[in-house]
Amino acid sequence: MSLADKIAPLLPHLRRYARALTGNQKRGDAYVRSLLEGIIADDSIVNHAMDPRVGLYRAFHAIWATTNPDAAQPDEATGMEKIAADRLSQITPINRQALLLTAMEGFSNHETGLILDVNADEVASLIDAALREIDSQIATTVLIIEDEPIISMDLEQIVRDLGHDVMAIVVTREEALSAVNKSKPGLVLADIQLADGSSGIDAVKDIFARFQVPVIFITAYPERLLTGERPEPTFLITKPFLPSTVKAAIGQALFFNDEEAKAA
């Protein structure tokens, strides 16, 4: 099997990870695009002796680590220069990289160590540091758009365990709009398919028409939203989920929202 055949099915999840890492779909996809251009030019940048998924993410991080997010952007900038010039509010620190790789992408500590070029014991320490950062984040209010009672209860418990308040739990697009008419949330957790057949995506579009807020989408069918053919969520969790996955996504979404608020 060729390298292209091995990595093709892995790209949707790499794109999801890249967007969570950068806090932005455009930036994340640009990094993945640059990686693919590098592979076309020289496929040895992916270690063929490794598991294809580990090798692909390791190659991605090699590109991620060589960019300068604060570089000035020349008018003629292209490729990696343009990515480097597209200033991130703050590069996602390595501890959060370790947490996202394990909690969101499902890598073991050993695999994460190979990707980040650190040992497994250090990965455990990095994850602990990231979780402490998340626990210390300023509390916000969260709107949960979810029509499955058990899942909404799980999400509510995770949110409260992190020290945040649940503004409301709604099950339809109309209820979501009614909730934000009363109060602005600091974060939205949204299912894709809602109780009355409406869409969580449409509910979020309604919210965005009023104001911007970080959103984490939750779905049993992530591949339907990872096609690359239209605007896609920056933060996407797959059902069934682990509490650690939701916790990592919430921490990262609020991390970027907080940094952008500071820069505003």
Explained architecture:
With 264 residues, the protein is of the alpha/beta class. The chain folds into 3 domains: 92 residues, Rna Polymerase Sigma Factor, Chain: A, CATH 1.10.1740.10; 44 residues, no CATH class; 125 residues, Response regulator (Rossmann fold). The chain has 12 helices and 5 strands. Helix 2 packs across helix 3 and helix 4 packs across helix 7. The N and C termini lie far apart (49 Å). The relative contact order is 0.13. The C terminus is likely disordered.
In CATH, what is the homologous superfamily of the largest domain?
Answer: Response regulator
Largest sheet: 5 strands, parallel
Structural class comes to alpha/beta
Could you tell me the radius of gyration in angstroms? 19 Å
Poorly predicted ranges (pLDDT <50, ≥5 residues)?
A: 68-90, 259-264
Name some characteristics of this structure:
264 residues; alpha/beta; Rna Polymerase Sigma Factor, Chain: A; Rossmann fold; 5-stranded parallel beta sheet; 5 strands; 54% helix; disordered C terminus
Please write out the topology.
Layout: H1 3-7, H2 11-22, H3 25-41, H4 52-65, H5 79-85, H6 94-104, H7 109-116, H8 120-135, E1 141-145, H9 149-161, E2 165-170, H10 173-182, E3 187-191, H11 200-208, E4 215-219, E5 235-238, H12 243-263
Parallel strand pairs: 1-2, 1-3, 3-4, 4-5
Helix pairs in contact: 2-3, 3-4, 4-7, 6-7, 6-8, 6-12, 7-8, 8-12, 10-11
Short description:
The chain has 264 residues and is α/β, with parallel strands linked by helices. The chain is 54% helix and 9% strand. The chain folds into 3 domains: 92 residues, Rna Polymerase Sigma Factor, Chain: A, CATH 1.10.1740; 44 residues, no CATH class; 125 residues, Rossmann fold.
